[in-house]
Each structure stands twice: as C-alpha cells, then as structure tokens.
Amino acid sequence: MNTCIFEDLFITRLAPINFLRHTSQLICGTDTLLEKIANFFPAKTPLTLHSRKYIAPYLTEKFPKAAINMLAEGECIFFNSRVVFKAEELKAITKLFKKENNTAILQNKVIIAFHLTKEKVQQYKEIVNPDDDNLISYADVEWLGLNKIESDSYRLINYPSDLILYNEEQLNYDLNLKVKGKKKLQLGKKCSIGKNVVFDTSAGRILIGDNTTIEPFVYIKGPVYIGEGSTIRAGSQLYGPLRIGGNCKVSGEITCSILHSYVNKQHYGFLGHSYLCEWVNLGAGTTTSNLKNNYSKIVLNINDEKINTNSIFLGSIIGDHTKTGIQTMLNTGTMVGISSNLYGAGYHNKRINSFSWEDASNKEVISYEIEKAISTARISMSRRNVSMTEAYEKMLRYVYESKDEVLI
C-alpha cells in the first residue's frame, strides 16, 4: 500500500507559516503533522508528498526517500496535510479502506483521506501534473466518482491559530506515547542539567531531547517537549503546553507556544500562545500580548477576512527568518510574514507582510531588498552550521516575487 500526503486548496489560509515548507511540516504536539502519519506506517511504505510546485525542489532535498508530486504504481491512501491525525484514527482509516475501495472520508466537503485502487491511481495521474500546483479539492472526489463517507470528528487546521488551539491535547497525547512507562520526566542522552532546576510534572509530562542544556534556576511545568541540542538559559520559566524544537536557544517566560527548530529567544520577555517558525530571532525584551484587557475573542485577518478564533488567548504567528529589535511589543493576534524586521517604540501593526521593515514608532514600513534578506538568512543559518541550498534560496525568491499577490 502506497501513501500520499497532499496539500489542498485551503492551504493559502495558513500563510505565512507554510511559505517555506510542505503544509504537513507544521507542528502540533511534539511532532510535525507529516511525522504523525509517516511514523504510523512501516518504514518501507512508499510515500509521496503532493505539493505546490515552487517548494518541490526543496522537498526533494529534505525528503530524499519520498516521491515528490509523482504517484507510485499500485493502490494508495491519500491523507490531507492539514489534519492532526492520531494513531487510532490512522488505524481506523486503514482498516476502513481495506473493505471500502475508492472511497473518500469528508468533513464539510473537505477531504480528510481517500483511497484509490491501482486502476484509479492510473486514472488520477491524468489530472495530477507535476508541472502544476494541482491543489486537491472536493472536485477531484467527484471527478473520480468515489464513494463518500461523512465525518465530523477530525481536527482540521484551517488557520494558524488552530495549531495552538489543539496543541495541549496533542502534546499530552504524544508525550504519553513517548515517555516510557509510568515516568513523568524523561531526559535524553548527554543532557546537561544545572543546579536548582525544577521539573514540575503535576499537570503533564516533560520530555527533554538529547544533548540539551538547561542552565541553573530554570522552572519547567509540563506538558513540555524540548528537542535535542537546545539551550534553556538560566532563570527561565517554561509553562506547558509548550513545544520547543531542536537547536533552539530560549530564555525568559514562555507559555502555551510552539517553536520550530533554530529559534532564538535568548533574552527576557514574555512569549505566550504563539507559533514561531525556523530562524526567528526575538530581541531582548520582546513581549507578546496573548489576552485582551476586555477578555474578548481574538480575531485574525486572513486573506482580508475577519476570522474569529473562538479563543481569548492568542499571541503572535511569526514566519521564518523574521527578527525583532529590543523591547518590541506585539499585540494579541499579530501575524508577521517571513524575513521581516520589527523595531522601534510602541506596538506594531497586527498584520505585517513578508520582507518588511516596520518601525513601530511611526508605523513606517520599508520593503526589504531580496539580496540583503537572502544574505542575512544565509549568515544566520551558517552560524548554526546549516548551509542554504539553491532550492531553499529559490523558495525565498519565489515568495518575494509573489509578495504583492499574497497578504502575508
């Protein structure tokens, strides 16, 4: 049985956090949405990633064992890249499709997963062209004449805030699987733990990855996951649900947030209910507001549409390579694109497009020159011994060239 993880028509609502990655590389809990699917199946199961054309060369580098936009011969199960799947859900789907061939599971006309026999895969190849984006939609189900099963039980990521909304449940679920036995705390190999570090597991488990350094006088309250090779500076306060990726350097007070790998927050300042992509650097004193004074539900501006998050808690959504200056203040529900720089006294706008320099003191916005943005990104990556490949650089250039057509 082959598997395919596909991007659908609604992924544009997840900008800017999927500009430089397959949508299934977004994170909820300890792992990416892709890892939740791929880890369920045997390692030898053929995997195809169906993606936007401009990120395909990068995916070829990132996932050398996967086929990119090329369906393999034989029957296949297709999974939506925006769904937070649990192992029992994947088991039930696989079992269903063994009995019900050429069938789609739908939720409000959004495809959750579908199955195609070998013959149907051949038919589908006629419309899945690797030279186009071919984002999958309900129309494909109709064109293929698939049987339909309706459901309302799956957790779809419709907007970036949904990753924060579902994170506590998923983080507890993942930690219960990863932390062995009845233990509440699991330390990886070669961790360095300073004096007077407090691990509070009263509200959830804590998992610390290999080669992680936790300096003295740190307080960590679960559920918390910290990836390998990260550093937690002295005196930090980490409150779950919190997920910190590998090779991060963090300090200050952080709560209810998701950090990809290679995030720098090395100084004091509060970060709450926020989602930070790779290579984000927060200057000293950078603080996010995650709760309005009147306790009203937070509204996001997505594609010029007001979206009610149905939550009173939400900090900032920050795209890759964005940096903030010292004492930067960010309002509730702030969305910042990739490769932007925020500085100056006062609060910033709640929506800041990619490749922007914004001065909060006068709200002046200057476009970031692409050559300078790439040069800075390359230096930032090299400081962590990561080389910017040609495919990665081309993604940055594509987003820059398209920035007038997209809103973040």
Chart the SSEs and their pairings.
Layout: E1 2-6, E2 27-28, E3 31-32, H1 33-38, E4 47-50, H2 56-62, E5 67-68, E6 76-80, H3 87-99, E7 103-107, E8 110-116, H4 118-124, H5 138-144, E9 147-150, H6 160-165, H7 167-178, E10 185-187, E11 192-193, E12 198-200, E13 206-208, E14 213-214, E15 219-221, E16 224-226, E17 231-232, E18 237-239, E19 242-244, E20 249-250, E21 253-255, E22 258-259, E23 264-265, E24 270-272, E25 275-276, E26 281-282, E27 287-288, E28 299-302, E29 305-308, E30 316-318, E31 323-324, E32 329-330, E33 334-336, E34 341-343, E35 351-352, E36 356-359, E37 364-367, H8 370-382, H9 390-401
Parallel strand pairs: 1-4, 1-6, 4-5, 7-9, 10-13, 11-14, 12-15, 13-16, 14-17, 15-18, 16-19, 17-20, 18-21, 19-22, 20-23, 21-24, 22-25, 25-30, 26-31, 27-32, 30-33, 31-34, 33-35, 34-36
Antiparallel strand pairs: 2-3, 6-8, 7-8, 28-29, 36-37
